[in-house]
Amino acid sequence: MATAFRQYPTEGPIYEFYRQNHACQTRELVLAKKRQYLTRDRRVMGIWAALEFLDTLVDESDPDTRLTQIQHALQTAEAIRAAGHPRWFIATGLIHDLGKILCLFGEPQWAVVGDTFPVGCAYSDKVVYPELFAANPDRLDPRYQSENGVYEPGCGLDRVDLSWGHDEYLYHVVRDHLPAEGLAVIRYHSFYAWHTEGAYLHLTNAQDRSVLPWVQKFQGFDLYSKGEAPPDPAKLRAFYEDLVGEFFPQPLRW
Length: 254
Fold this sequence. Notes:
By secondary structure, this protein is mainly α. The chain has 10 helices and 2 strands, in the order H-H-E-H-H-H-H-H-H-H-H-E. It has a two-stranded antiparallel ribbon with strand order 1-2. Helix 6 (166-174) runs antiparallel to helix 7. The longest helix has 17 residues, at 206-222.
């Protein structure tokens, strides 16, 4: 029987995670976190060192797996590799969750992981647990209550502030190292309301539409590789160190 993914309960730790996330992810917080973290002055390290640094984290928002972060990274990348995709896509799969090191910099998980969504405009009912937005102070700001909010229709997702987390952070860390399709996967892979549910299309532009198929393709490798046996990092390290050296030859600023 196939494993069912993204089955979200109406109580328990995952529900509690999203209760905090939806109440606290205001536009003011998002803008403050960008000012705080996009200076990228906390440490300098390479991709493999970042994977090992992250490996103690368990994502509280993920109902599908309890693999370590490095096992999930390799599992995703190996599924992409087995399907014969380009090396940039394999590299993207390997690093896609590395922004979660924000948790190890002291950020609470509700400000790092989970599904992302736009702030500064009306919330879609396609976002997981939409009823929990009732506790968000932005619901009281009239600027944010319309479909477009503070944005122009068709402005493009790169001009839209999404809830703060590992996707946006990692995008800025690696933005000079991957093609546009890979960067879109990193920046939007947690934006399920858009790439899976078709919400917020009124804010997208031609560039978003051109990369959307890659973001959607990635979901099959990120999500549906989770039911497979965990990979052995020691056996795969030589291949992935070579891959990392191709796209990230120098340590990165975090």
